[in-house]
Write a structure and sequence with these properties.
Layout lengths: L9 H16 L6 E5 L3 H12 L4 E6 L2 H9 L3 E4 L5 H8 L10
Length: 102
């Protein structure tokens, strides 16, 4: 269940409902998650991954505001405009054993 304020436009309510359901049903079976895209659904997926116990959550995008929001959600922001995002993730890993779930 997601609380939505009564004055939230219906198109936003639909996005929140759809994104929340998708992210909440995700099965986190690993310690490391990579989310490609920091839009509403991507950020929600990243946050659900954090809440479900993933030790490392990487969010890949190139929009500074979205990456800042990912960092607020305790995810590790990766800017794909700087260099290859996979190489950045591997370099940032605590243990270099690859990504277990994307």
């Amino acid at each position: 269940m997601v609380d939505v304020e009564h004055n939230t436009p219906s198109y936003r309510q639909a996005l929140i409902h759809k994104g929340a359901g998708t992210a909440a049903r995700a099965r986190i079976t690993s310690q490391t998650v990579a989310v490609f895209g920091a839009g509403p659904v991507g950020l929600l997926s990243a946050y659900c991954s954090v809440l479900k116990g993933a030790s490392e959550v990487f969010v890949v995008d190139n929009i500074p505001e979205q990456l800042a929001k990912a960092k607020e959600l305790r995810a590790i922001p990766i800017d794909f405009s700087e260099s290859d995002p996979v190489e950045q993730i591997l370099a940032a890993r605590k243990k270099n054993d690859g990504i277990q779930q994307a």
